[in-house]
Amino acid sequence: MNIAGNLIADATRRIFRDLGDPQALNLARDESWRAPLWRALEDAGLTRAWVPENLGGAGASIAEGFEILRISGEYAVAVPLAETLLAGWALARAGKNVPTGPLSVDSASKDDALRQMGAAVRAMQMAGALQSILDRSVAYAKERVAFERPIGGFQAVQHNLARLAGETAAALAAAGSAADAIASEPSFNEAVLLEVASAKIRVGEAAETGAAIAHQVHGAIGFSREHVLHRYTRRLWAWRDDFGSESRWAARLGASCAAKGADALWPMLAAR
Fold this sequence. Notes:
By secondary structure, the chain is mainly α.
């Protein structure tokens, strides 16, 4: 990522750290935090990152937009930043003016390009959320004491955390690969389909496994209203189904591969 991309990422993280801390919002008595957070995101141009400058947007690259999404996933804050980014991208792509304020898109849309972009967006958000779940689980295992020692010292817990780290790494790699393909390919071609479908499937699987492990590590406290873990796992469960579940993308990817014949499968995989 270039200097501009680093500045965008830094601005995103700073805004969420200052105004969107998950634990602080989890304990908030009302929704008054939404307005200042959204205003800060708008003022920084993050809500219109994928809208070209000539249409009043920030003109950020595809890669920079996905970095915004990864960081927003780390905070799992319930504001429609991803939806607004995606809607702005779709409208700008069609040469239409992008209205101000929060926007959304139909996750059941039949438009092939929008569905693939939406699936990649959700995959990146899930990968970011998994990174935070991993960090929080490791920290909790170091702090929580049972039988006079931190639970992180028990082999079973260590094994689960290692599995969670592996799932998180796989999710970040798959989501990043899909984002790279979208950024580098001239259109939503077969190469992009392979990467996006693979990412939505693999990240969805990681979300299922990762959420289960995190709740095992935290025990009953992770389900309590006071603890922030459930904010992440509920987001993961919702994002898995948006723009197509793992089974739908697996069926589509399988049909695409079958249509080309067995001889084309290995060259297609090796090319990526």
